[in-house]
Amino acid sequence: MHGPAVSGWLLVALCAATGAYCLLRMRSSVEEQRRSAGGEALMGFGMAAMAVPAAVLTPPPWAWPAYAVVFGATGLHSLWASHGDTRHLHHPLGAAAMVYMAVAMPLSPGPGHAHGSAGLPLLTGLLLLYFTAYVLVTGVRLVPVTAVAGRPPPGAVRAPGWGDRPELARACRLSMGIATVVMLLTM
After folding, report:
1. What is the pLDDT along the chain (187 residues), one digit of tens a residue?
2. Distance (Å) of CA 56 to CA 4, 8, 52, 128
3. Which of 2, 71, 150, 151 has the highest CB neighbour count under 10 A?
4. 42 lies in a domain?
């Protein structure tokens, strides 16, 4: 990834921590949590690997096509698993963005270089718009709703385990969305 080493390492830490938590979510008792957690863990660790500052570690030439293949397969799997449910199209779109970055990052000249006369490529701009909107909407959804004092929420039987809490899963998706925006901005 192009950019300052400190921000690159912070991005690596954020993505790796998100990937680790998603691995732990795979032990959830909630089937939907388990289903999405594996793909999200792969995305988190893959993003962490792609975010390692180029000044510290220059990936071998075969790494970028390997990233594209892994993220492409992940995207196809999550598209197939969504069964046409449009609520779950964020996962294949995130994987497609990672494929795009895996192809475009080695071709990107880095900071301080002109990106040509065309300016910001159209696909990068569209992905930036989508992921920025996703981050804002997901962030708003994390704002807690106040409950009536003394009453449990409707349908609450027991407190969910730490791996079953939907707000933690949403926070993981939020952090990966933020990381995607940062990575797109550095291209």
Report:
1. 555 688 889 999 999 999 999 898 888 777 777 777 888 899 999 999 988 887 788 888 899 999 999 999 999 988 888 777 776 788 889 999 999 999 988 876 654 333 443 456 899 999 999 999 999 999 998 887 554 445 555 655 555 566 666 778 888 889 999 999 998 988 7
2. 11, 10, 7, 26
3. 71
4. yes
- Dihedral in degrees, nearest 10, Cα atoms 129, 135, 138, 143: -130
Domain annotation covers residue 38: yes
Is 134 domain-assigned?
Answer: yes
Task: Count structural domains, the chain.
Answer: 1
Assigned token pair, 110: 């880095």
**Which structural domain, as residue segments, surrounds residue 129?**
5-61+120-144+161-186
Q: Which residues of 16-52 are buried (b: 16+ CB within 10 A; e: fewer)?
A: bebbebbbebeebebeebeebbbbbbbbbbbbbbbbb
Neighbours of 166 (CB within 10 A): 12
The DSSP annotation for 62-120 comes to: THHHHHHHHHHHHHHHHHHHHTT-GGGTHHHHHHHHHHHHHHHGGG---TTS---TT-S
Round to whole Å and give the CA distance between 118 and 138: 32
